[in-house]
Amino acid sequence: MGKELTSRSENYSQWYNDLVKKADLAENSDVRGCMVIKPYGYSIWEKMQQALDKMFKETGHVNAYFPLFVPKSMFEAEEKNAEGFAKECAIVTHYRLKTDPNNKGKLIVDPEAKLEEELVVRPTSEAIIWSTYKKWIQSYRDLPLLINQWANVVRWEMRTRLFLRTAEFLWQEGHTAHATANEAVKETEQMLDVYAEFAETFMAMPVIKGKKSDGERFPGAIDTYCIEAMMQDGKALQAGTSHFLGQNFAKAFNVQFTNKEGKLELVWGTSWGVSTRLIGGLIMAHSDDDGLILPPKLAPIHVVIVPIFRSDEELIKISTKVEEIASSLRKQGYSVKFDNRDNLKPGFKFAEWELKGVPVRIAIGPRDLENRTIEVARRDTKEKQVMKMDDVATAIPKLLDDIQANIYEKALKFRSEKTTKVDSYDEFKKVLDEKGGFVLAHWDGTAETETIIKEETKATFRCIPLDASAEAGTCIYSGKPSTKRVVFARAY
RNA sequence: CGGGGCGUAGCGUAGCCCGGUAUCGCGCCUGGUUUGGGACCAGGAGGUCGUCAGUUCGAAUCUGGCCGCCCCGACCA
User: Fold this and answer.
1) How confident is the model at residue A105, as a pLDDT?
2) Best exposed site among A52, A87, A364, A414 by fewest CB in 10 Å?
């Protein structure tokens, strides 16, 4: 029947898909390529939003909102960007329907209502935002302009996968303008750090900060930085990007400012974003065959309390106690769910909340009332312990911190075990096929080599790690000299 | 857009080869017994078999068109 998940080792993709659906996170919509994020899944996104938004504000950013539609001429102004996204754009060509004269009750697109200029549904908002910035920026005193937008974007993907790739997705995109290149570069790096910190401290997901190759760079950027995470099947997931745009968009949209010396200069730009894809990453980084494992810092429910009772009187007695416990935890800012449904057995509830990844479960029965104890189970290790009721208020917060730290450590350990240094192409292929994970190798830095390696091994260049130490070597493919090891992996 | 597969109740399916008005499980509703790791019994509701056409006395089943979905490629955060 429906509750058993496919095992991870059997078929990772199917396990992932099953899990997303059975844990009530999201489902495929009837609309082509689109996804419905269900309340439980969306509440994880809200948690992420809250944490990220706070970090953005702390680094001086403010939120704004720009239109969904981008006139085609505006879209094509920055050539590389337009070209890069051209193949996956949805376009509005008409603004009206009318009843079909030949087919009662049906509607057709009114040919009379053709737009003079087509509107592109934003795949990203650089174009519309920079055309607006032009109006906002005159003087160096208007800079830096540090704006973030929470929005949806549309990229017409051929093949979709819940959270990881859908035709429409939710994200945040930061767009900043600066007076100097140096300041913009600093901003790009700062936001990459923000993402890395978010991934590690909130998602408990270790990431490698790095720089993309020419081939994988954001269209229109000078440099693209990224954070790369490893999923439990050893594949890489690009979890966030931060771009140094140079003056490309300033040129395209003619965004200039008067500097202190009274001279006109083009501004320098950055953009950076993370999306609901992070939810996919969160799932694939931690969860097991019993379901989701959520880090306490992002779990919509921290503690679920399951009463064990035989009669209504028993339930009432237990409920009184539960309310005490729940309120003492809620006072400390934790979200507590009392699962007092009377049509389900405790065992069923245990399994269900495990599937949904609630970090801590408390069970209270008549036995506990007598002894003034509770049974506490942690989701990550599935360990159970009986503790004194009086200790709950102090023990649970500690336990949650423990879980947060533990799943990070576990993911970190997994990543280091699955990261391999290789020095020859044969070894490279062997590791990819037999072990998977990240492969650290010397690469000559050329697009040709990158493409051939991708074609032959399906592994893509992920990034040049920012903390890579200088090390003389030779490219595993071409034998040409190289100064650093870079990361290759099969990826999502 | 190429290659493969599928479309039957809210979900998962059997039936299709060999035509006779649809099977089973889960879920749902009612009543009862249960409840410390995915309960059980009894009764009940729920289906234009993706869609349109054709063949036929008769189509879930055969034929053709269309629509949609999934998997593998190409594309991608």
Assistant:
1) 66
2) A87
Which of A401, A488, A362, A486 lies closest to A436 in space, CA to CA? A488
Protein CB footprint (7 Å) on chain B nucleotides? 1, 11-12, 25-26, 28, 34-39, 68-77
In angstroms, the CA A214 to CA A491 distance is: 18
Least confident range of A9-18, A52-61, A213-222, A339-348: A9-18
Q: At what angle do helices A12-22 and A277-286 cross, to 10 degrees?
A: 110
Condensed to tens digits (0 to 9), the pLDDT of residues A275-299 reads 999 999 999 999 998 999 999 999 9
At A262 the three-state DSSP class reads coil
Residue nearest to nucleotide B25 (CA to C1'): A1
Nearest nucleotide relative to A167: CA against C1': B76
| A491: nearest Cα among A432, A434, A445, A441 | A432
The answer to whether the beta carbon of residue A376 comes closer than 7 angstroms to any atom of strand B is no
Structure confidence at residue A4 (pLDDT): 64
Of A7-11, A201-205, A211-215, A240-244, minimum mean pLDDT range: A7-11
Query: Mean of the pLDDT values across residues A212-230?
Result: 93
Considering only residues 131-170 of protein chain A, which place a Cβ less than 7 A from any atom of strand B? 155, 157-161, 164-167, 169
Would the Cβ of A172 be found within 7 angstroms of any atom in strand B? no
Percent of chain A having pLDDT more than 90? 78
| Identity of residue A256 | Q
Indicate the pTM of the whole model.
0.95
What tens digit of pLDDT does each residue of A201-218 get? Answer: 999 999 999 999 988 899
ipTM: 0.85
- Chain A, 11-30: which CBs lie within 7 Å of strand B? 13, 17, 28
- CA A107-A94-A168 angle, to 5 degrees, is 90
Number of H helices, E strands in chain A: 14, 27
> From residues 425-464 of A, which are strand B contacts by CB within 7 A?
none
State whether residue A27 is helix, strand or coil: strand
Nucleotide lying nearest to A460, CA to C1' measure: B76
Give the DSSP letter string of A433-464. Answer: HHT-SEEEEE----HHHHHHHHHHHS-EEEEE
Q: Three-state SS for A429? A: helix
DSSP state of A300: S
